[in-house]
Amino acid sequence: MADWQSEQRARGERLAAGSKFAAGKIVAPNDATALLEAVIRPKDRICLEGDNQKQADFLAACLAKADPKVLHDLHVVQSGIVLPEHIDLFEKGIAKKLDFSFSGPQSHAVPRVLKSGKVELGAIHTYIELFARYFVDLTPHVALSVARSADRQGNLYMGPNTEDSPSVIEATAFKAGIVVAQVNEIVDKLPRVDIPGDRVDFVVAAPKPFYVEPLFTRDPASITEIQILAAMMAIKGIYAEYGIKRLNHGIGFNTAAIELLLPTYAEKLGLKGKIATHWALNPHPTLIPAIESGWVKQIHSFGSEVGMDAYMRARSDIYFTGRDGSMSSNRMYCQLAGLYATDLFIGSTLQIDLNGNSSTVTTDRIAGFGGAPNMGSDAHGRRHPSEPWLKAGREAVDGHPQLMRGRKLVVQLVETFSEKMVPVFVEKLDSLELAEKFKLDLAPVMIYGDDVTHIVSEEGIANLLLCRTAEEREQAIRGIAGFTDVGRRRDRKMVERLRERKIIRRPEDLGINPLDAHRSMLAARSIKELMHWSGNLYDPPNKFRNW
Amino acid sequence: MQTLRFRHTAKRRLSGKKDEAIIGVVASGNLEVLLERVLPEAACEVDIATPLSGYDETWKAVVAEFVERSSPGGLRISINDGGARPDTVYLRLMQGSALMEAE
Fold first, then answer.
1. What is the sign of the dihedral through the CA atoms of A158, A159, A165 and A170?
2. ∠ CA A331-A441-A95 to the nearest 5 degrees?
3. A417 touching B, CB under 8 A?
4. Domain total of chain B
5. Do B99 and A515 touch (CB under 8 A)?
6. Residues of B in contact with A417 (CB under 8 A)
């Protein structure tokens, strides 16, 4: 007789083993390691959230304390390798295999453990790619989640940092897995229910509130005039030119400059209401002046940002909020929004080669992908037209084809040199060397050249849609690469011809006065001014309070 | 401290009537540029004082590009560098010539 219920039976056994440490669903913090040793089995796939921002830090520490004789060879399938404990799991032999997406703060540690042979790397994913695999071939046996509060039935309230949890928990709970959540507190009545309690098996009240990484706060005081110049070019040469209303921004200072130029420079150009109205965007504090000036209609967010809670609650016309009034995020939905419902992605990168491929990998650092390759790609499943999408599509072809698809604008906004005079434009990406060194099947590329439509540097805009040959493309890139070696090896005559065809446009071609590239053009020049713009609702994290 | 001097013949005299302009500050990663309209029609002279040595070729390229693109005939330009990146130097030169062209 075939056995069709083995997973449910195994789940029952795990639940029974775990229940020894629980009163109902509630587990005391001191018993958390014992609980994990009881419900997890060797070789299990586990997801230890591990998101872009919020961290199940208490459960991570408890799991890292487990006995490697009991728990070993775990397969970690989580989006973020962020905490030192995530690395400890591998150092101690508790975990063996890794499939992940982003490793920002641990980007130097990941290559170290790879080299030591303590990690067997599956693949580096984008967020929704990994979430998708949760439902196909990387379904977690156990998910260790994190919420602000829980009630005794196990209902969870996430607050603004819902992030990955619904995707992780749905995949785990409905495939006979075990879901454990750490919470800041256990209460009688939740402000709202983000995860129904029948998907949650155990709840632990952590001794300290969970950690959230402030990832999206850019201090306007650090924005340079070069960044302002490039931002003005992006606004005038791309946002205005294509009429970009629906968009996503990366997290760099370059895009923060654009956000702070909307109520000033873009307002002067008469663009209010015509560009940048609908966003798939984390709650960037630098967008506050544009919101307060009436530029922004709506924002959906992947996650939250430290210090923005009260501001978002008070601006529910702009943000998505729950019935309790607090903001609600969802990484899966927002990534889908960025993929299918925006017309432009703009972000920064560390290296761009002569084909327009870009990478944030250097030879000793594996930062992973996060969401950028998804935001920064043309969705071939898109079928609804919009003016910017159609215009970009027309530019990419000659004549009038009977059938034409539009193109999402994918813009790389860079300075020709990054810190310490390291050139951003290179002949060959470091990623290739890294792939060789660590024997990766695939050299990590953040955004492939064939998805990139424009590159903006302080020297100008290169419109790659209009290029017709590989040679034109190369010279368009060299032609805005400034005084880097790549830029200085340009064919000057060809670059001039590309300029005549508007494939390359310089600040002077766009009528931008270099004297406007001045910090007085920024709507806010410090974190304190952002706070003032918000009517003191924005509460900046301590590390940004320098007054 | 290293000093460099470049002499160029520009395509034409820089338009505008201003005799003198100054822009930028001497600070780390920044620079101060003084522009004076004291030379004959197409002549252009650029003097640079920089704390960093070894970037002669880059300076040469930045100045040549500036002369090519904005034709600053008649100007003597003095640069007091604080270790600025070439893109910043170029922006300051463009800002300086925009100031000299202003009515």
1. positive
2. 60
3. yes
4. 1
5. yes
6. 85-87
CATH class as words, domain A23-212: alpha beta
| The residue to which tokens 């520490």 are assigned | A61
> Domain of B7?
2-101
Reported in sequence order, the residue ranges of A108-210 that DSSP labels E, i.e. its strands, are 120-124, 142-150, 156-157, 178-186, 202-205
Q: Which tokens sit at B32? A: 């101060």
Determine whether A418 is exposed, middle or buried from the number of CB atoms within 10 Å of its CB (0-12, 13-18, 19+): middle
Burial class (CB in 10 A: 0-12, 13-18, 19+), B27: exposed
Return d(Cα A103, Cα A379) in angstroms, integer.
25
Which residues of chain B approach chain A closer than 8 Å at the C-beta?
A: 58, 61-62, 65, 69, 85-88, 90-91, 94-95, 98-99
A513 and B98 within 8 Å at the Cβ level: the answer is yes
- The two beta strands, A358-359 and A298-300, are unpaired
As a whole number of Å, the end-to-end CA separation of chain B is 36
CB A449 within 8 A of CB A477: no
* Complex-level ipTM: 0.96
**Strand arrangement, sheet containing B20-24:** B2-9, B43-50, B75-81, B31-37, B20-24
Level-2 CATH architecture, domain A345-516? 3-Layer(aba) Sandwich (3.40)
Q: Which amino acid is at A26?
A: I
We report the CATH number of the domain holding residue B74 as 3.30.230
Partners of A150 in beta bridges: A156, A186
User: Which pairing describes strands A298-300 and A278-280: parallel, antiparallel, or unpaired?
Assistant: parallel
End-to-end CA distance of chain A: 73
What residue spans in chain A does CATH classification 3.40.1080.10 cover? 23-212
- A305 Cβ partners below 8 Å, 6+ apart? A53, A214, A215, A216, A217, A282, A283, A284, A285
Distance from CA of B91 to the nearest CA of A (A): 7
On the CB side of A74, how many CA atoms lie within 13 Å of its CA? 35
Q: Which amino acid is at A58?
A: F
What distance separates the 2 farthest-apart alpha carbons in chain B? Answer: 38
Q: Each residue's pLDDT tens digit in chain A (547 positions)?
A: 789 999 999 999 999 999 999 999 999 999 999 999 999 999 999 999 988 899 999 999 999 999 999 999 999 999 999 999 999 999 999 999 999 999 988 999 999 999 999 999 999 999 999 999 999 999 999 999 999 999 999 999 999 999 999 999 999 999 999 999 999 999 999 999 999 999 999 999 999 999 988 889 999 999 999 999 999 999 999 999 999 999 999 999 999 999 999 999 999 999 999 999 999 999 999 999 999 999 999 999 999 999 999 999 999 999 999 999 999 999 999 999 999 999 999 999 999 999 999 998 877 788 899 999 999 999 999 999 999 999 999 999 987 778 889 999 999 999 999 888 899 999 999 999 999 988 889 999 999 999 999 999 999 999 999 999 999 999 999 999 999 999 999 999 999 999 999 999 999 999 999 999 999 999 999 999 999 999 999 999 999 998 8
CB contact residues (below 8 A), chain A span 126-165, against chain B: none
* pTM across the whole model: 0.96
Q: How far is CA A508 from CA A60, A513, B58, in A?
A: 54, 7, 22
In degrees and rounded to multiples of 5, residue B36 shows phi and psi of -130, 135
Query: Hey, is the C-beta of A510 within 8 angstroms of any chain B C-beta?
Result: no
Give the pair of three-digit tokens for residue A437: 């060194």
**Six token digits for residue A513:** 């006065």
